[in-house]
Amino acid sequence: MAFLRAGGSNIHGAGRSAVAVALLLCTWPAHGFEFVDSIVRDFSDSEFVFQRSASLVPFPPVAYLGASHYGSTQVSGSARGAPIEYQLSTVSQAAGIPWLLGERDAVVVGEYLSWSEFRLKDTPGEDFSVATVGLPVGWIRQVNPDWQAAAFIMPMGHRASLDDAEWSWQTMGGVFARYVQTDRLWWAFGLYADIAPGEDFYIPYLGASWAVTDHWTLSAVMPWPALLYAPDDNWLFRFGVTPSGASWSATPAGGADSVAMNLDAWDFGLGIERRLGGDVFAALEAGVGGFRGLRLQDSGIEDIDVDAGSSPYIRLQFKIRPGAFKP
User: Which domain of life does the UniProt lineage start with (predicted)?
Assistant: First the structure.
């Protein structure tokens, strides 16, 4: 059993539990985030520079809890000569804590947890779920007032509910650099790698972020461009591309007739976020997911190229965005 990437979710069952926990989190008083605030103060007193302009677009999240659901999609061109149809739902949670090592260096230690449910339709084999655990570790350095360098690595383990399924392992990582040209424009360069059973995936990270006005920001970082609009400090709208939670590889049937799926995907949609209080935001996103290609491996027949259709998706998340990083 090889499971490469997960990240979507179901609002029922385990999804309801995740939403309940998130709602409880969002009712915490402000002093419940004093630990986050103390880290922000430490970075504010260091030489790190994260944002210079007075843009209303908030800082990227340092933690989230969410649930997503992808509608049915059909894979054509399988070795059996028949299409494969499935749905994917996931509950996921992640967080990272940065620690200063000096005025210019910091490490980030985090965790990632997810539970994904695969529902097969009119396909041999039973529905199954996959649990995922990841431990990311990163490093960042403020080289000078204009340049930052960073690197990260995240080993991940996956375990399916299938009979005789074992833990499978993969490693994600990357190296990046950021150059701040002006108070409103910065450039990013880097390379991302995903090393997993059956397939290694490499992609360059290149582009720019331009704060056109205090309200509008164009994130032209490939391969995930987006347009962001913040009318005030409490609302954020995002329209563009994100990495999909529907990227996976599995053996749903088990035994000699097993089928392994290797999937890379991108989602295209509109996201709306609202500040609930302090640094906590609620986010709802919907669009078309699964712009993806799929490869099947079936009883000695390897790397057969097939096409997978797109499907609608919906995602609900609760995020912590430390606004105090802003000037």
Answer: Bacteria
pLDDT in tens, 110-139: 999 999 888 877 766 678 888 889 999 999
Q: Residue 122's domain is classified under what CATH number?
A: 2.40.160
Q: Which of 149, 141, 146, 150 is nearest to 103 (CA)?
A: 141
In a domain, 73, yes or no: yes
Taking only the tens place, the pLDDT of each residue in 16-38 is 434 444 444 444 444 445 666 77
Q: Where do we find the tokens 């998706």?
A: 313
Phi-psi region of 50 (alpha: psi -120 to 50; beta: other; left: phi over 0): alpha
Cβ-Cβ contacts under 8 Å for 67 (sequence gap 6 or more):
9, 10, 11, 15, 18, 19, 89, 90, 91, 92, 315, 316, 317
> What value does the mean pLDDT of the chain take?
76
Range name among 23-37, 84-98, 129-143, 253-267 with the lowest pLDDT average:
253-267
Cβ density class 102-127: b for 16+ within 10 Å, e for less: eeebbebebebebbbbbbbeebebee
| Structural domain harbouring 155 | 14-325
Cβ contact 321:35 at 8 Å: no
Tell me which amino acid residue 259 is: V
Split into its structural domains, the chain has a count of 1
